[in-house]
Description:
Low-confidence stretches: 402-409
Number of domains: 1
InterPro entries: AB_hydrolase_fold (IPR029058), Fungal_lipase-type (IPR002921), PLA (IPR033556)
GO cellular component, one term: cytoplasm
Domain Fungal lipase-type: 135-297
CATH architecture: 3-Layer(aba) Sandwich
CATH topology: Rossmann fold
Structural class: alpha/beta
Number of helices: 11
Protein name: Phospholipase A1
CATH superfamily: Alpha/Beta hydrolase fold, catalytic domain
Order of helices and strands: HHHEEHEHEEHHEHEEEHEEHHEE
Largest sheet: 7 strands, mixed
GO molecular function: phospholipase A1 activity
Strand order of the largest sheet: 1-2-3-6-9-10-11
Amino acid sequence: MLEDIPKRWEVLSGQNKWKGLLDPLDSDLRRYLIHYGEMAQVGYDAFNWDRKSEYCGDCYYPKSQIHARTGYLKANPFRYNVTKYIYATASIKLPLCFIVRSLSKKASRVQTNWMGYIAVATDEGKAMLGRRDIVVAWRGTLQPYEWANDFDFPLESGVKVFPVTDSKHVPRIGSGWLDVYTASDAMSPYDTSSAREQVQAELKRLLEVYKNEEVSITFTGHSLGGVMSTLAAADLVHSRKNKIEAGLQSKQVPITVFAFGCPRIGDQDFKRTVNSHKDLNILRIVNVPDVAPNYPLFLYAEVGEVLQINTLNSTYLKRSLNWRNYHNLEIYLHGIAGMQDKSGVFRLEIGRDVSLVNKGLDALKDKYLVPSTWRCLANSGMVQMDDGTWKLDVHRYEDDDDDDDDESTNK
């Protein structure tokens, strides 16, 4: 029940590493996971993937509108205000499924992509969540992967992010992951600093604003977003930047990661580094037929606790050989909504609309009469000009400043 979440939020956020909550799946945790998964889904729904657009790689909506324009707000009691957009770049050549580039010669951010957002619970949201929750939501990847090639990253020393005293156990991380997280571009008008620096600066600001309240930080993401969530959370704890200094008192802010369909990130020494931080709680949600969490195949190790779902047990979905039908985030959220336990019983426990499955796929059985891939911009982003001609125009018209620290909307 929703009214129990404020009382149980610490347990639901992994205080006891989710012992006794995963099999069978706890009803409050089910709703909790869907909530954070939906916050990650906003990143997909708001991202401009169209390479024909001059603004490919950007977000469609300003911070003040992103939750409303993506449908997150309706019938949702968990209210947040978005305070910061995250941008990332790459210093090495990465597959298009990670950093998307516009085909337009006018494009201003050739190597820069919008990667997600930071949001803080409003007073209304705080009442429903039991504390002032700060969410870092990372977008994932939508373009098709070529698994053998796109995840074939050489392992690279992560010592600059995770300094360690034992030189024999330096954590190594996939070079592609590390690059998206740490690369910066001095010429970019949006991220002259790295994604890492942007996130840490905004979290520092918010922890100062809410230092006299009970606060949590929750990282959420799917696929690449799960990787970024894990790296950023582990980095924050490893560098001890999850502390609040209030007067003479110092307290640790609990850090939780919900990583959906997340590939492997680093080696055994990275796992050892992550596991050394007992106040870092990571839950990976893995769909049995999804191959992504099993890559890269060699030299990598998995971190965190695991909730295993299996959407093959859903009576609502078509059987498919298309890997996207098992990796898609909406498929994951459908699986969480119906999973009972490891016995394979599937029964929708909460009123999550099954039509969401077909938002970007043709995965729902035809008898439910929901068109496939139904979510798109009006006229695919084409706008009629005054002279009667049509033009692709999906620019994000700003009504707020990306660097504006607006604290007045937490009411």
